[in-house]
């Protein structure tokens, strides 16, 4: 049976909508804040969720990433005040089903609910991310799960796909995943590295050439577009494609016809296009470095891959799977991950993302040799120094510190720590995990006390968002 959830701090609105849904023969839960709503979403498999924008502990739209990351996310209907055009725009960008202006008539609510339920029933019978052959895509964080859900949609269609993300986030891996799960899986997956092609070679590489077309063309040679016939053409770093070539490729994309260099006849190729870039193509269009009409054609569907620093919880799983591969590659015995090794990696900023993580792991494993456990000492000094400096900046709030300032700041931090945790420092130290949990709870209690429970002062001091602060309160069993 279908199940609904309403998250709204207006008791009257909740009761009215719940009464309507119950009369339709469906159960309905209610929550009046973000924290309770998120807890219910994680515990139940709802079909439709009515979500208010303005809630006591934050903006309802902040909950959308967590909702969309669920295995079978509900269809979200945003409840917004009249005239709130920005709220409607943000809701649609966040992937919601629809939005209702408050107050809405019973007819409007029922019509929107019926459409959402019909769509949801059809959707759950389609391919789920868990059914994907993931081709070594690793991770269970909200960001990566949301990207896999988009990849599942991409695999079901033949639409052009634009994959964006920083260098090293796995754009080609996602492209191969889409291809492997698509009806074109038996065709070739042809990769074109646009960054490595010179302007003079782009046309002959993509379209091929005929014998005698230029010096050195001793025989006919098919291009990559012809090789992708019946399969997938993957253009990696399309932002590097020369502007002069973009116009030519746009015509090929529109007509699925091309002419080899030196050829007299046009040829056809039925390929599916997936492109990737680490650049902002929208900004490039404004700068005149990328064609707007080509951008419109390639971004029929867009998948954004999160950077590793926003999916820190995936690092341990990434390490374990990569370690198995490297142990086999180098003939090493299985290794364990030391707590300090993992802690340092979780504190690093990861400008090179997963690719950098794998390179650092390989170097550490070679350095460890036959040792059974990877410790922080197996990481490069350069990496450990960067992490140490980053920690000091976080603790002191300063980007650059002189040696005198750094020493004074460090002394101040130690003094505060000794005062707050005197009972801990006078006895055997707990594990770092236990210490962090204690420190978080002590900090929250102290910031509440010093701010006299004033939420504005608390947020200004802690630099936390309202929703994050209330989630931490719930986690630590604290209250204002």
According to CATH, the homologous superfamily of the largest domain is P-loop containing nucleotide triphosphate hydrolases
* CATH class annotation of the largest domain: Alpha Beta
Q: What is the mean pLDDT?
A: 83
Task: Give the CA-based shape.
Answer: globular
Structural class: alpha/beta
Taken as a percent bin, the fraction of beta residues is 5-15%
- Number of H/I helices: 21
| Main sheet strand line-up | 2-1-3-6-7
Rounded radius of gyration (Å): 27 Å
Give the low-pLDDT segments.
399-406, 408-416
Total domain modules: 4
Major beta sheet summary: 5 strands, parallel
Number of strands: 18
Overall helicity: 40-55%
- CATH topology name of the largest domain, in short, is Rossmann fold
Quick recap:
With 480 residues, the chain is an alpha/beta fold. Helix content is 49%, strand content 14%. Helix 6 (142-156) crosses helix 7 and helix 13 (315-330) crosses helix 15.
């Amino acid at each position: 049976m279908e199940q609904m959830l309403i998250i709204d701090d207006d008791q009257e609105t909740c009761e009215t909508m719940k009464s309507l849904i119950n009369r339709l023969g469906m159960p309905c839960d209610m929550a009046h804040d973000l924290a309770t709503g998120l807890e219910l979403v994680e515990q139940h498999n709802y079909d439709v969720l009515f979500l208010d924008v303005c809630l006591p502990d934050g903006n309802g739209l902040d909950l959308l990433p967590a909702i969309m990351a669920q295995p079978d996310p509900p269809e979200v209907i945003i409840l917004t005040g009249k005239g709130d055009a920005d709220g409607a725009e943000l809701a649609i960008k966040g992937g919601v089903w629809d939005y209702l202006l408050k107050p809405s008539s019973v007819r409007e609510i029922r019509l929107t609910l019926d459409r959402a339920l019909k769509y949801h029933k059809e959707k759950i019978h389609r391919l789920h991310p868990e059914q994907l052959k993931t081709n070594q895509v690793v991770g269970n964080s909200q960001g990566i799960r949301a990207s896999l859900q988009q990849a599942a949609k991409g695999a079901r269609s033949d639409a052009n796909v634009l994959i964006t993300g920083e260098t090293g986030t796995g754009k080609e891996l996602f492209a191969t995943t889409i291809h492997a799960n698509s009806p074109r899986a038996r065709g070739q997956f042809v990769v074109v590295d646009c960054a490595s092609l010179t302007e003079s070679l782009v046309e002959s590489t993509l379209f091929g050439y005929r014998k005698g077309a230029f010096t050195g063309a001793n025989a006919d040679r098919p291009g990559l577009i012809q090789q992708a016939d019946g399969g997938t053409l993957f253009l990696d770093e399309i932002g590097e494609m020369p502007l002069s070539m973009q116009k030519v490729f746009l015509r090929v994309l529109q007509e699925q016809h091309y002419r080899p260099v030196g050829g007299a006849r046009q040829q056809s190729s039925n390929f599916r296009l997936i492109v990737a870039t680490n650049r902002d193509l929208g900004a490039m269009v404004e700068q005149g470095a990328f064609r707007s009409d080509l951008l419109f054609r390639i971004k029929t569907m867009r998948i954004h891959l999160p950077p590793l620093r926003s999916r820190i919880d995936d690092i341990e799983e990434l390490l374990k799977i990569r370690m198995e591969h490297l142990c086999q590659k180098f003939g090493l015995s299985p290794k364990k991950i030391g707590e300090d090794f993992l802690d340092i990696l979780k504190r690093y900023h990861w400008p090179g993302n997963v690719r950098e993580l794998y390179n650092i792991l390989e170097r550490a494993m070679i350095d460890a040799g036959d040792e059974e456990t990877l410790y922080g000492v197996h990481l490069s000094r350069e990496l450990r120094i960067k992490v140490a400096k980053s920690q000091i900046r976080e603790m002191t709030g300063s980007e650059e510190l002189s040696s005198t300032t750094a020493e004074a700041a460090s002394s101040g931090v130690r003094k505060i720590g000794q005062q707050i945790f005197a009972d801990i420092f006078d006895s055997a130290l707990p594990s770092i995990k236990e210490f962090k949990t204690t420190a978080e709870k002590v900090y929250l209690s102290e910031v509440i006390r010093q701010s006299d429970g004033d939420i504005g002062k608390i947020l200004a001091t802690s630099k936390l968002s309202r929703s994050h602060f209330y989630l931490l309160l719930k986690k630590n069993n604290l209250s204002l």
